[in-house]
Target: Bifunctional aspartokinase/homoserine dehydrogenase
Amino acid sequence: MTLEVSTAQIEAVAEQVQVHKFGGSSLADAYCYRRVARIVTEYAGASDLVVVSAAGDTTNRILAIIDAKEEGDETDDFGMAEVLLKQLEKYQHGLITDLLSGDILTSVMEASKQDFSRWWNWLAGGEEIKNRPELLSYGELWSARLLAALLQQQGIRADYIDARSFLVADDAPEPLIRVEISREGLLNRIAPHAGTRFIVTGFICSDPNGRSLILGRNGSDYSATLVGSLIDSKQVTIWKDVAGVYSADPRKVERVVSLPILDWREAEELARLGSPVLHPRTFQPVNRERMVIAVRSSLKVENQQTRIGQYEDTEPTGKVLTALADVVLFRVDLRDAKLIEAFEELDLTPLISWNEIAQHQAYYAYHQNHQDYMTAWLEQVDSKNNASQLTGYAMLALVGNRIQETEQFGVFKQEVSEQALRRLALTPDNNAVVAILEQKLDNRLLNRIHSQLFNHRRSLGVLVVGRGNIGSAWLSLYRRLRERINEQMDVRIIGILNSTQMWLDYNGLDLTDWQDQFERLARPYEMSQLIPELPNAPYDELVMLDLTDAIAVAQLYPSFFANGLHIISANKRAGASNESQYSEIRTIQQEYQREWYYNTTVGAGLPLNYALNDLRNSGDTIRSISGIFSGTMSWLFENFNSEVNFSDLVRDAKQRGLTEPDPREDLSCQDIIRKLLILAREIGLRLDWKDIDVDSLLPEHLAEIPLDEFMQRLPEIDEGMQDLYADAQKTGKVPRLLASFAVQDDDTVRARVGIEYIPEGDMLANLIPGENIFVIYTDWYHEMPLVISGPGAGKEVTAGGVQSDLNQLLSRLAKAK
Ligand code: ASP
Ligand code: MG
Model:
């Protein structure tokens, strides 16, 4: 080919023409196309080149059709391939009719129909389309043609170029570009047309005989820099769904920062370590002294962009935390010198490699994506089976030039050393520190490490389970205190759940009108399926508020802890579960180092746990606690006398929300036993249900019937209660329902719940209805007890107590680092 363009034209091209690239997801539907057209008119110069990928998931669709056809070849059933091809045709034609009209519509549609008739012919066994690369090429061809047509329709001078018409390469696993001939071809096509925007197909090129070749999956970034370097352009802009390169993957990590600049070596290292931002080959053709790659958001054009260029002299800092969930280790016998040499010379460099001399082993870590390739390669070079593959590993890496000199290096080392670290190493150029972990990665871990590295405010995601009285009261309290709560950490409510429905949003719920929003947005869910998902919520820490009374929730505490959540409970069921369950919960809690607060389970908002912990931490020993632990019982008995029916009091109390939903929980003393167990366990005693001596107020024949019926038959308890009252009065006393436990001299615990007769003048006989009282004897308080009393129930005080637990959790977590 002879050069038809003048030197002056070539210089003008190099000076003026820049390259832009849009990926498939930027062209997924008509709306996206219009946005891209707008960017091309407003942010690209009049002679710029625009490289495009296939629209949406077209490449994947094409691959699926090819697969289905191949299967059809074996089974003689092309049904699937037909269906998929019809869908693709419909998608492409839909784009065309949505975007174009008039003559332009007619001509593009005509061309497209011709293409598809070739496809149908191919499916039927015809030979018009020869090979897989040719089939794949259509994706890019269609998007380039359509975007050019759309621009033309908008009155802009535009045309499209099939890259196979100029980009020539020799076939190889990664096609080898013939630079000179490709440059001439491109210049000949564009130089004479200053003032025309050309849309160029990404991903594809051709061999010297005109056969289609592809540049590898996601190869359009590479196409863009290739085209840019052919014309010696100063800038290639890669337009993405995200604004530039961030300090971590913004889909997984919260509060990432976008990086204004990145040095070539950092960008390259990042791509090599599997960061989804740019394909590793993108950097190959670049003239690093001249070109800059700008990575920019097509959704938010105004956002900051990242400029990748020659910036190696800037102060070294850790820039990007990057992660790979699935890493394979290839373990090779060091004594097989030939095989080791083959590994060392392999083009595909490992993430890191190292030797363990004592065991005669070398390790090469690769991303799982490369496993098939490596396996096939090993089949050729490892005839003696001296290499084995180990899976179940993950990688975390921190990228930045001269990483060892940065402040973040130490932080990173510290953080990964707390994980199941298999190996930590610097990459040879000191552009990254890489950690291979023998464990799964989750987003919570990424978020934690990211915020340690980049010193962000730490975040806490709150899952609220239970939206009854307490849940509602706490949510309104939270709304009122939100600013103050957020001072220590960035706290967000990520979900509100009842037993069947959840309203979940990892970005944080907007709590205005939350009741209505819940009605509208909540969806059915399974708690057991939700929990393993939660570690992906992008927060440093997560807490579950159990504001239910549900055994089902309490049973899942081990699973919540094991998935990284802290727990705050108003629910007594876990703290008062039987000894074996309780110790399982505690074991798992400790193993996973989670916090568990449950101050409101006894005495609601009363600062009982603070007093007990404080005494114990200061060296005192608790000897006994007795009193009226139940606000319900307190209310019932303080209002009870010979003139009123006990059953009327129970009804009244239920209506006022003072009883458990089923008042039998109170009457059978279950609720009090639970509190007693929780208190005893809180001070380190071992106590189980069977160790407690209980006098229930609930006659056995009423225990099992449905709640409605029970409420009707409630008066059946009145006679017995009146007898009790009369009996107490004989000695000038009144009945009260007391709970107590005491550590005996032999260190066993005596615990009892039941009616006792109290002299009428005694403090216990003169509480305000609903008041709780805890009488505490200790080594120090042995002549006169420490007494804590006050309201022991009610949604406001309970919500306040939950908030107090949350405050405690926040200060604990904020201190943690
Ligand atoms: N369309 C091609 C692919 O999906 C190239 C690209 O998107 O960069 O792999
Ligand atoms: Mg793509």
Q: What stands out?
A: Residues 23-24, 53-54, 59, 139, 202-203, 217-220 surround aspartic acid (ligand 1) (CB under 6 Å). The chain has four domains: 7-249+261-309, 320-453, 459-602+802-815, 608-792. Residues 7-249+261-309 form a domain with the Carbamate kinase fold (CATH 3.40.1160.10). The CA atoms of residues 402 and 430 lie 5 Å apart.
